[in-house]
Write a structure and sequence with these properties.
- By secondary structure, the protein is mainly beta.
- 0% of the residues lie in helices and 57% in strands.
- The chain contains no helices and eleven strands.
- Strands 2, 4, 5, 6, 9, 10 and 11 form a seven-stranded mixed β-sheet that branches. Strands 1-3-8-7 form a four-stranded antiparallel β-sheet, with no helix packed on it.
- Strand 7 and strand 8 form a beta hairpin.
- The radius of gyration is 14 Å and the shape is globular.
Length: 119
């Protein structure tokens, strides 16, 4: 059974920091590309940051320079360090795992963790 379990969300004041974690089980974590998405009320889910199995990273423009994605394959965990948070970052944050090879694709999602930034 595949599980992606996010943690680390919460309430923080603007300008503060949070570190999200996503612990994966039931998959060969090291071969998956991992990502963090977020969904604010009334908005579509959007990509925040991603990291490939080769450790290449990609960030959405609104979070560049403030957020850092990283992974620890030994712990089957992906992290999102979020600094200089602002109220626009308020959303439910979801962990995503994707595997694609030779026409085979597997995608998994976590249950989400709420991040609320107060002004």
């Amino acid at each position: 059974q595949v599980q992606l379990v996010e943690s680390g969300g919460g309430l923080v004041q603007a300008g503060g920091s949070l570190r999200l974690s996503c612990a994966a089980s039931g998959i060969n974590f090291s071969v998956y590309n991992m990502g963090w998405y977020r969904q604010a009320p009334g908005k579509e889910r959007e990509l925040v940051a991603s990291i490939t199995r080769g450790d290449s990273t990609n960030y959405a423009d609104p979070v560049k320079g403030r957020f850092t994605i990283s992974r620890d394959n030994a712990k089957n965990t992906v992290y999102l360090q979020m600094n200089s948070l602002n109220t626009e970052d308020t959303a439910v944050y979801y962990c995503n795992a994707v595997f694609r090879l030779l026409g085979v694709e597997r995608t998994y999602w976590g249950q989400g963790t709420q991040v609320t930034v107060s002004s």
